[in-house]
Amino acid sequence: MMTKYPKTTHLMQRGAEFFGCEHAILCGAMSWVSERHLVSAISNAGGFGVIACGAMSPELLDGEIAGTRALTDKPFGVNLITMHPQLFELIEVCVRHRVGHVVLAGGIPPKGSVEAIKAGGAKVVCFAPTLALAKKLLRSGADALVIEGMEAGGHIGPVSTSVLAQEMLPVLGEDHLLFVAGGIGRGELIAGYLEMGASGVQLGTRFACASESIAHPKFKQAFFRASARDAVASVQVDPRLPVIPVRALKNKGTELFTAKQREVAQALDEDGIAMEEAQLQIEHYWAGALRRAVIDGDVEHGSLMAGQSVGMVTKEEPVPEIIATLLAESEAALERR
Ligand SMILES: Cc1cc2nc3c(=O)[nH]c(=O)nc-3n(C[C@H](O)[C@H](O)[C@H](O)COP(=O)(O)O)c2cc1C
Fold first, then answer.
1. Which residue's C-alpha comes closest to atom 1 of ligand 1?
2. Looking at the domain covering 6-214+312-336, what would its CATH class be?
3. pTM higher than 0.90, yes or no?
4. Atom 7 in ligand 1: which residue has the minimum CA distance?
5. Residues of CATH 3.20.20.70 domain(s) within the chain?
6. Tens digits of per-residue pLDDT, 62-110?
7. Which residue in 13, 327, 5, 42 sits closest to 187, CA to CA?
8. Cα(83)–Cα(110) distance, rounded to whole angstroms?
9. Residue 228, phi-psi category: left (phi > 0), alpha (psi -120 to 50), beta (remainder)
10. Residues contacting residue 272 through CB under 8 Å, at least 6 positions apart
11. 326 lines ligand 1 (CB under 6 A)
12. Who contacts 178 (Cβ-Cβ below 8 Å, separation ≥6)?
């Protein structure tokens, strides 16, 4: 195939073949943001879009997949959160729609989930937080892995992308499909990860402000104004309540989350709610807070989940332009080598 980006395309070939797309650039699922419009725009532009199921019910997911299909005939994936109480029903919905790729996020996949997806004919993509877990996930049937560093927006782990990439790509990159996420704002970095053995990359923050994204104009404005240091990780208030940190732009919502943690910790003490229920309450809080910012445009009290690459997001651009820019930057870097 003739391509404007031969070196990048060559290095992304395995990843692109796996996802059935032209360029192995994924738009990571973003709750409320990654719905039919953005997902189809990414896939139509040659990348790989992923629907964020988040807290959706099976009925809502069913409608979103059908709605996305109506807007693109290219492949796209679905991201399911492992702690969703109806995970297996959601998997059934994906299988029924013949979704080709299911991304399992939010923790180690529960027993039977990987098998159920594969039995339905889809590929499974998992997040690998450590090298040991990466090996385990591959042994348990994961077809590809995303390694996501703490620079990313949304829920994050404790280790940076650059360190995860060094730990995992040289060891696993040759024989397995690894995609790098977190902190990617330019194509030069994409070139670097591809050369280290990545099969492709995943971006979220950069695509959240694309023209095709339905995020509220105020949400996008907040991104354009922000610099890297404004995207901070949430702090755990109570040592007994292990909350997964979330990276978001600082605002009043950051303080509200601290208060929410205290409230849930108190419920743990006084009402005797189970830890699982406590953690679910925290996740529901995030879903609601993100909705307030993304959909309602409440950028004061809502959650402005954003990665550190937000400082490089300065204007609204159509998805095809963003992808073309990233590819051109990667290609120029590889040509200079
Ligand atoms: C607003 C927002 C919401 C997100 N929601 C989810 C989600 O629901 N599920 C998920 O697996 N990742 C989620 N992420 C992470 C992205 O899929 C992606 O991995 C991450 O944004 C990549 O790092 P970057 O922000 O530095 O590009 C979210 C990120 C953002 C910015």
1. 305
2. alpha beta
3. yes
4. 30
5. 6-214+312-336
6. 999 999 999 999 999 999 999 999 999 999 999 999 999 999 999 999 9
7. 327
8. 8
9. alpha
10. none
11. no
12. 128, 134, 144, 145, 146, 147, 168, 169, 172, 197, 198, 199
